[in-house]
Each structure stands twice: as C-alpha cells, then as structure tokens.
Amino acid sequence: MNKKKLTIEERRQRNKNRINTKKINKWNDRLKKVFSILIKFKYLSNKEEKILRYFMFKNNDVMYLKSDLDCLIDALVVNYNYKLKNNYISLNMLSTDSINSLLRNGFVYIDKFIKKELVSKILYEIENNKKIIWKHPNNHGRDDIITWFKPTDDICSLNSNDEIKQVDTNNNPFHTLLNKILLQYLYNDLIQIFKLKSNKTNFEHQLASYSNGANGYSIHRDCSKDESINGGRKLTCIVYLQDESYNPDIDGGQLLIYKDERPIHVEKIAPYGGSLVIFFSGAIDHVVLPYKATNGKKRIAFTTWLS
Fold it and tell me: Are the CB atoms for 299 and 291 separated by under 8 Å?
C-alpha cells in the first residue's frame, strides 16, 4: 500500500508538530526536576504543587537548568513568585525588588541598609573593644586580618569601656547588628524564600579588616555547589562598615561579582558604609580589589553566612 504523498505545507506542519512535541517533553522534564527540588527541600506540599504547576505552565516561569544548584535557584524563583502572588510574603528589611534581584542575578546590593549612626558606633567598638582578637587567616589569596565570633560572645554583650560589668545589650552596636538586624529581621525575611536552618547558633560570623596597601582577596567562592545544597553555606551576607570619608575611586577595595553568564559579566560594587551585599555562597565567584586608603582608615566588612 502506497503512502500518501504529503504536500510541502503538510510536511512543514508535521515537522513543526514534532518540534513542539520535543519542546513539551523537555519542558515537562524541567518541571519535574524543579518540583522534585521544591518537594525535597519541603518548600511545597503536594497540594501546593498541583496549584503551582498550573501557575508555572501559565507564566512560563522556569529558566534553563544546568545543575542541581541552578535548579534549586529556579525553583526558588517560582516558589517566591507563587507566594508573592498569593500574599504569603511579609518582608521587613528587604524589598520585593531586592528579592527578585537576588534570585535572578545571584546577588543583590542594598545601599544604606543600616544607619550611619550605627556604623559609627560599631567602628568605635572595633577600635576600643579589647575583646576583639585579630588573626591572619590560614587560607591563601587574601591580605586581611579577621576575627570569628558568635552572638553570645563577649563582643556582643560587654561594653568596650567596662569589660567586667554586664551592660544593656540593646545599647551594644554589635548586638544590634548581629542579633537584631541580621539574625532577626533579615533572617525572618530570607527564611520565607530559602530553606535555612532554624538553629541560628550554627551560622558563621566574621569581621574582616584591610589596611592601607592590602592586596585584597583573589577570586574565590565561599563554598562549593555541593556543599551549599547539602547543608553548607547558602547565603553570604556582607555589611560594610567604612566611615563617610571612604572614596572608592581613591581608596579602592571594591567587590567584584562574577555573574555566571557568557560572556562573563563583572559587577563592581563599592563597599560604602552601611551597605549590604547578599549572594549565593555556592554560585558566585568574587574578588576584593587592593585597598590603598592613605588616611589610615581601614576597610571593614562584617560577614554572616546563612546555611
């Protein structure tokens, strides 16, 4: 039996249908991977999954998935849009634009995150608190001094001028920055979008100082993608503590963010005092440029890693 010979137009339509079928299958595979991540990290219940599936098909809101971490980020974007649309998000410190920037670009820069008065008080504590013990880090490629501490350490509870008598921690600037702003307000915003540990004592906190002539910090990533997915550092949150005299064009010390694009795009961020940078610890390569402030002022950064 001879097959019917197709016209040119019919062949075009047949090929178009085959291509569409392949696209639909590929789309379904991507959806399944996104949903598996959402369910694995307990972002959604099975009932919510059905609702969100319709929402995703309708809005075509999934990007190309390259790895498990990329898949997780894409799932977060979808989940965030779903929660935002249904008024499940209540933000305190961050704006919806900031969250969107973080999810879409892998990082966000927020100017004037904390008030300059608090920056000044923290800088005073850094200069005068004898409990702060600076050390040179063991890892290569960096030229700063650092100190590690926890929210319960003396630095967050003792006044620099009175090392024995307990004082009202509400007046301690480190307590305000760490325990209130970062571990309460900012954490409460981010935990609505990210799967973060509820035990805040496991988070890492570091104060880093660069002096005049420091070579900066060579390109690095705060953890691997596998570590980030499996309970390691998820978000790097850096609050900069320069005084008002800081001038990036003269002093240097900018942060370079390498976005995972082709061609690679580099974002230069000036660490003005009071500003905040958040980025994905396991996905963003970054560099600290050499610091050359001749006025004796140091480049101070307070980093919290949320896991």
Answer: yes
Separation CA 124–CA 171 (nearest Å): 13
> Strands 255-259 and 285-288: what pairing?
antiparallel
Cβ atoms 94, 278 nearer than 8 A: no
Q: Are 204 and 233 in contact (CB under 8 A)?
A: yes
Q: At a CB cut-off of 8 Å and minimum separation 6, what does 111 contact?
A: 272, 274, 275
Tokens of 134: 């600076």
**Facing residues of 280 across strands?**
235
Tens-place pLDDT, residues 31-77: 666 666 666 655 555 555 555 555 444 444 443 334 555 666 666 77
CA torsion, points 87, 90, 94, 99, in degrees to nearest 10? -40
- All domains in the chain, ordered by first residue: 8-88 (no CATH), 107-306 (2.60.120.620)
Q: What is the C-alpha to C-alpha distance for residues 243 and 251, in angstroms, rounded to an integer?
A: 12
Percent of the chain with pLDDT over 70: 71
